[in-house]
C-alpha cells in the first residue's frame, strides 16, 4: 500500500439498506482499488431450524427467510416438497401462485427503485415511487390481509382462493398503477440527475457476470437473458405472454431499467392471471412421504431461488438447503466498485438489490 | 407396461457424467456400514411442469474436478452446493450434492465422502461462484475443501468450532430412535469406545 492509498472500513450498518454488511475498501484518494466484505451479522441458523419442524411448519419458516421476496421462498419450498412427494397442484392454484408472486415482484422492484432515488438525494422522486408502490401494498393488504408476508402458499396449492370481486379490484389497481409507473420509468430513463449518478457507474461486464454466475436483474443488466420463468417454466408461467427485459449497459442504470421494465411485464402477467384463471379446486391432497430427494427453483424479484430437500420417511425433512439470489450477487460488488468513487458505494450496493438476512439465513 | 420418458438435456454431457458415476451395483462410501436404502448411481426425474432433473452419484469425490470441467466446457452454471449427513447419530456419513443448470435442465452430482476424513477437491478454480458455497460447507459441516484459494470463514466467527451443523440432529431422527438403527448404532459405537 503506497502513501496515497489507505484502507477504509464501511459498515456494518446502513450501507444502503438497514441491514448489516461490512466492507473493507482499499482506496487511492477517493477511488476504490480493492473491495472485500465481511458478513455473518444476522446468521440465524435457519437450515438447522428447518430440520426441527415438519413439512407444513417449514412453509411458515421459509416465508420468513426474507421480507421483500418472502412469497418466493414459500413458493419454491412448496414446489420442492411437491417434487419430492410427487404432488401435482390444481390449475387454479398455479395461477393464484403466479398472481401473488407478481404482486410481490412489483412491490419489491419499486422499493429498490425508490431507495435508489433516496440514496441519490432525490427526495421527491423517492416519495413519489413509494406512493405509487403503496397501491400495490393496498392490494396485498386487501387480498391477503398482510402488507409483507402473504401466507398464500401451502403444500399442494394455495391457502385461500381469490374471489371474482377481488380479481376485479386487482385489475383496477393495476390500471391505476400502469401510467404512474410508466411516468416513473421515464424519469429514471431521462432525468439528468439520476443518469449522472447511475449511467456508466458500477460496471459489471458481461464476461464477469457469467464468470460469477450472477442472477436476476444483475445478470439481465449485463446482457445475460436468464429468467427461470422462461428457461424452465413452472406454475402457470408457460401460459403467460411476457418478455424478459435485457440491457447490456452493465451499469446501475441498466439494472434499474430492467427492474422498471419488469414491473410493466408483471402488470401484464397479473392481468392475464385475473382474466384467464380457470375455476376449480386450489389444493391437492398430501401424499405419503418416502425416502427421497428433490430440488426446485423459481425466479424471485432478485433472481433465481434454489431449494433442495431430502426426506427420510417422516414428516420432518432430513435436510433442507436453499440458496437465495443475493448469495450469488455479493461477489460481483468487488468488480462493480473497482475504480469507482467512495461516494458511489451505497448506490452500487443498492443496485444489486441486496438482502443480507436472505444471504446468511 | 413401463412408461417411456424422453430425457431432456445435453446427451454428450450426460454420457460424460455417467462415465464418472459408480457402475450399477457398486456400493459407495464405507462398504462395512449398512446403507438405509440402495441408491442408484444415476437416475432422472421430471417435475409436474416437465422440467428435467438428472442425478448422478460420483464414483469418488475426486471425480468432481473432471465433472466440473465437463460442465464448464458446456457452459453450465453452478446453482448451489448442498452438504448433508445421511446418518446423524453414531458415525456420520457426509455427502455433498452439487447442483448445476444448463439450458433449463438441472444436473445434480452427489459425492459420497469418507466419514473419517470428509474431503472434496475445490471446484472454485473452475467455477468462481463455488467460493462461498465451499467456505460455508467448511464452517458448517467441517468438510475439508482441498486446494480452495480462499479458505477463510464466510459467516461464522473463527472462535466457533467448524462443523456446527454436524451437531444438529433432525427431530425426526431423535424421535424415531425406537424404530431405526441410528440410535442403536450410536449406543454400540459408545460401547466400542469403552472397550
Give a structural overview.
- The complex is a heterodimer of chains A (361) and B (195).
- Chain A has one domain (48-328, 346-360): Cytochrome-c3 Hydrogenase, chain B (Orthogonal Bundle).
- The model of chain A has no long low-confidence stretch (mean pLDDT 90).
- In chain A, helix 4 packs antiparallel against helix 5, helix 5 (123-144) packs antiparallel against helix 6 and helix 6 (164-190) packs antiparallel against helix 11.
- In chain A, a hairpin with a 2-residue loop joins strand 2 (22-28) and strand 3.
- In chain A, the strands form three sheets. Chain A has a three-stranded antiparallel sheet with strand order 1-2-3.
- In chain A, 49% of the residues lie in helices and 14% in strands.
- Chain A is α+β, with helices and mostly antiparallel strands and 361 residues long.
- With 195 residues, chain B is α/β, with parallel strands linked by helices.
- Chain B has a single domain (11-194), classed as NADH:ubiquinone oxidoreductase Nqo5 subunit (Beta Polymerase, domain 2, 2-Layer Sandwich).
- Chain B is 26% helix and 22% strand.
- Chain B contains five helices and seven strands; from the N terminus they run H-E-E-H-E-E-E-E-H-E-H-H.
- Chain B has helices at 11-19, 64-74, 130-141, 171-175, 182-194, and strands at 42-46, 52-57, 77-85, 94-102, 105-112, 119-121, 144-146.
- Chain B has a five-stranded mixed sheet. Chain B has a two-stranded parallel sheet with strand order 6-7.
- The longest helix of chain B is centred in the C-terminal third of the chain and has 13 residues, at 182-194.
- The termini of chain B are far apart.
- In chain B, 39% of the residues are buried.
- Chains A and B meet through helix 3, strand 6, strand 7 and strand 8 of A and strand 3, strand 4, strand 5, helix 3 and helix 4 of B.
